[in-house]
Amino acid sequence: MGTTSEQKIALLLLGTIWVLLGTCNAEFTPADNYLINCGSTVDVHVPGQGFFRADNSGSTILKSDHNVAANTLPDAVISSDNPVLYQTARIFSVPSSYSFNMKSRGRHFVRLHFFGFRYQSYDLAVAKFKVSTQDVVLLDNFTPPSNSSPLVREYSLNITEDKLILTFVPLGNSTSFINAIEVISVPDDLIRDSAQTVNPSGQYLGLTTQSFQTFYRINVGGREVTAANDTLSRSWDTDQNFFLNSTTTELFAYQAKLNYQKGAATKEDAPDSVYNTARRFAVQNRTSLVSNMTWQFDVDGSSSYLIRFHFCDIVSKAAYSLYFDIYVDGRLALENVDLSERVLGTLAVPYYMEFVLKSSDPSGKLSVGIGPSSLNNVAPDGILNGLEIMKMDISTGTVYVVWPPGTPNRKLAIILGTVLGGVGAVSIAIILCFVLRRKKKEKKPRRAPTSRPSSSWSPLTLNGLSFLSTGTRTTSRTTLTSGTNSDASYRIPFALLQVATKHFDEQMVVGVGGFGKVYKAVLQDSTKVAVKRGNQKSHQGLREFRTEIELLSGLRHRHLVSLIGYCDEQNEMILVYEYMEKGTLKSHLYGSDMPPLSWKKRVEICIGAARGLHYLHTGFAKSIIHRDVKSANILLDENLMAKVSDFGLSKTGPELDQTHVSTAVKGSFGYLDPEYYRRQKLTDKSDVYSFGVVLLEVICARPVIDPTLPRDMINLAEWAIKWQKRGELGQIVDQRIAGTIRPESLRKYGETVEKCLADYGVDRPTMGDVLWNLEFVLQLQEAGPDVSNVDSMNQISELPPDTRRMGSLEIGTADESPTNMDYSQMSTNDAFSQLMNTEGR
Ligand SMILES: *[C@@H]1O[C@H](CO)[C@@H](O)[C@H](O)[C@H]1NC(C)=O
Ligand SMILES: *[C@@H]1O[C@H](CO)[C@@H](O)[C@H](O)[C@H]1NC(C)=O
Ligand SMILES: *[C@@H]1O[C@H](CO)[C@@H](O)[C@H](O)[C@H]1NC(C)=O
Ligand SMILES: *[C@@H]1O[C@H](CO)[C@@H](O)[C@H](O)[C@H]1NC(C)=O
Ligand SMILES: *[C@@H]1O[C@H](CO)[C@@H](O)[C@H](O)[C@H]1NC(C)=O
Ligand SMILES: *[C@@H]1O[C@H](CO)[C@@H](O)[C@H](O)[C@H]1NC(C)=O
C-alpha cells in the first residue's frame, strides 16, 4: 500500500508539470472557414461564427414564402440558432456544384443546412436529391424532413485535395436545394487514428482517413450548447430525450477552472461547458445500485459508429476514488475505468475515450451505459459528461462530380491550358432554374434588355468559392442551350491533333473499330491522350457525335474513361479521351504474354468497372445503358485501376486489329443478353448480363467465344454456368491463379456470376448489388469469412431495386452489332456511338 501512495504522489507531481505545460494552448484558428448563405444577396452575421457570405452577385434571390417578415417563419425556424439563414435557398434542377479552394488539407467539418419551404411552384420539402464530394456521397435519395424545422447535417471529412467540390444532384424530376454551407478546418488530431472496437474487442486502425457523419452530440447532464458557444461551432444537445430514467441520478455543474492536460482532451475536443457538467448516480442509491445509467439513440441499423465518451471528474473529492464500467450496445466495453489513472491523479481534467461499434443492432437502437465497477473495495459510482456518436463508412453510392471551370479534371485542365492557351476554361454557366423557368414562363425574348445582366450567366467567384453548374445534360430540363455554348471549350483545333498524332501516323494506331481508328497521341505538354477519329459520316452520324459529346462531357467518374475534348473542324469527327496506359482488361487476361493478374487485382478491377457501370445506371435522372460491356471496353490505367470506356483500345495495334476483326460479330455475341436478343428490349440488366460474362472471362481467362474448342465449350457463358450450377466452378479457374483463391471467395464470386447471368432481367441483380457482392468477394479473399459481415452484406444486397429511374439513355458503340439483329429502332450503324432517349418507346 505504501508504495502505491508514493507512486501516486510522484504521479501527482508529474501531473502538475504536465498541467502547467498543457495550459498555454493557443486558440485554434481555422485555415479554411467558408460560411455561405446560399441563394442570398446579403451577408448575414451569425453570432460566434461570423458572416455567412451571400453566394451570388446580386442577380438572383430566392426567398421563402415566409420572408415577408421574419416573424412569419415557423416557430421552429425562428427558434433555431440562425433563422435568417433559412430565408433563402439556392435551387438546382440540374447537377450543380459549389467548389471551395482549400488552404489546408486534413480534417474539416462540412455542414449543410436545409429548410424545405415553398416558393411559388417549388415545394422544397419534397425535393429529392443527392449530395457528394469528389470522394464521398454525403446524402443520397435525400428529402428534408417535413416537420418545418431546419436540418443541419454535419460531416467530418479528411480533405486531401486542394479543392472541395460539393455537387448537388436532383433525382427523378425533382430539384435540389441548399440554404447554407459551412466548410471549416478543424484540428487534425480531432480524430485520432485508432480506437478500441467493441465486439469483438480489438483495435480499429485507420480513423484518420474515415469520413464521419455526426449523429448525436450530447452535453450529458448539462445545457444545450449552441454553435456560438462551442470552440468549433458544434452544437451539443441535452441528454433529456436520450437518458433512460431507470435509475436516479444527479446533475453536477462545476464552477472552477478545468485542468486541461497535455495528452488528454483539448478545448477543441469539447468546450468547457460540456466538461463542467456531468450526470452521476444519485447518492442515496449508490450503495445499492441495481441499474446502469443508460442512454439510447436511434441510429441506422447495420452501420458502424465511432462513439466518444467525454469525461471530466468534477465530482470526486479525491483522486483514485471513482471507478466505473462503460457499456456500448449492451456490452461491456471497458471495465473498472479509473479516470485518475489516465490523467496522472489530477481532478477535473477533460478526457475522452472512444470506441468503434462495428455493426449496431438492426433494430436501429444504440445504447450506451455507465455502470458501477464490480471491484469490491470501491464504492459503486459513475459519471458521464458528454457523448458523441459519429457514423462511419457513410458513403454508399457513387459520387457525382460537376467539375469547376478550369479544372474539370486535372488532365483536362492541363490540356486546355496548353491547347487553348488559357483562352477559355470550360465555360460552364450558372443555371438558375429559377431564373430560367421564370424567363420561360414570361416568354421574354432573350435579346430584350432585362434587368438581369448577362454576367449572371458566367461563373462567379468570391473568396475562392465558385458556384457553377453544368449545362451539358441532354434532358428536357436543360433549357440552357443558346447564349452559352457550354462545351465550346472542349473543342481542340485539328492542327493540334495533327501534330499530336504525327499526322495520324499508322504507327500511332492503337485500336481500330467500325467507327475509325484510335491513335495514341502526345500533346505539347507531353500529356498522353487517345484520339478516336471517325470516318467522315452522314448528317445523322454528326448528330450522334454531338450528342455523345454533350453527354460524355457531363460524365465524370473515376471509373469511366473521360472525354477530354473533341474536334469537328473540316467535317472531322474526333473524340479525345484520357490515355489508359495499361490497355484493356482483356489483354491482361489472355492472348498476350503479360503476367497474370492476381485474384485480388482481378476482383479489384471488376469492382472498379462495376462502380463505373453502377454510376451510369444510377447516377442520373435517366439511367444510361452502356450496351457494349466487355473486357475489351474495360481499360486499365497505370495503376491498373479500371475504367469503363465505350471504345476498344489496346496497346498493341496489329493484335487488336486482328482481335477486332475476328470478334466483330462473335465477340459481342458472346456477351449479349439473351433476353435482349429475344425480345429486343433493352434494360440496364442487359449490361448486368454482359458484365457477368466479363466476370467469367476474368476467372477463366479465356475468350467468350472460342470456335477452336469442342462444341459445348465454344460459348464461355453457357459452358461455365454449367460448371457453376454443379458447384464446380473451381474446376475451370485460370490455372495460373487457381491455388490462390480462397474457397469462400470463389463461392461468392460464382454465385454473383450466376445471378448476373439469369435468363430474365428481373432475376438479375442491379449493378449496385453486383458491386456489393464483389466487395464481399474481396473481403472474403482478404480476411476469410466473418459472420458479422455476412449478415450486413446480405442485407445490403437485398435492398429493393432502384425505383426512381424515369427512362433511360443508352450509350455504346454500334459497330459490333450482330448482323442478324434488327437495330432499326435503335440506331444506325457506324456512328461513334448511339445515344438515345428511350422514354418514348
Ligand atoms: C414529375 O413529378 C410529378 C410529381 O411531382 C409527377 O406527377 C410527374 O409524373 C413527374 N414527371 C415525370 C416525367 O416523371
Ligand atoms: C488524411 O488522410 C491521409 C491519407 O489519405 C493521411 O495521410 C492523413 O494523415 C490524414 N489526415 C488527417 C488529418 O487525418
Ligand atoms: C453562450 O454564449 C452567450 C454569449 O456569448 C452567453 O450569454 C451564454 O450564457 C452562453 N451559453 C452557455 C451555455 O455557455
Ligand atoms: C425520471 O426523471 C425525473 C426527473 O427528470 C424524475 O422526477 C423521475 O422520478 C424519474 N423517474 C424514475 C422512474 O426514476
Ligand atoms: C433507488 O433506485 C430504485 C430503482 O433503481 C428506485 O426505485 C428508488 O426510488 C431509488 N431510491 C432513491 C432513494 O432514490
Ligand atoms: C449494466 O448493463 C450490463 C449490460 O447490459 C449488465 O450486464 C449489468 O448487469 C448492468 N449493471 C447494473 C448494475 O445494472
UniProtKB/TrEMBL annotation:
Pfam families recorded: Malectin_like (PF12819), PK_Tyr_Ser-Thr (PF07714)
Residue ranges of the region described as Disordered: 813-841
Compositionally biased residues, Polar residues: 816-841
Residue ranges of the TM segments: 412-436
Protein origin, superkingdom: Eukaryota
Any one GO CC term of the record: plasma membrane
GO molecular function, one term: protein serine/threonine kinase activity
Compartments in which it is found: Membrane
Keywords: ATP-binding, Glycoprotein, Kinase, Membrane, Nucleotide-binding, Serine/threonine-protein kinase, Signal, Transferase, Transmembrane, Transmembrane helix
Recorded topology in the membrane: Single-pass membrane protein
Amino acids binding ATP: 532
Record's keyword annotation contains Transferase: yes
Signal peptide range: 1-26
Record-given protein name: Uncharacterized protein
Organism: Hordeum vulgare subsp. vulgare (Domesticated barley)
Recorded name of the encoding gene: LOC123426354
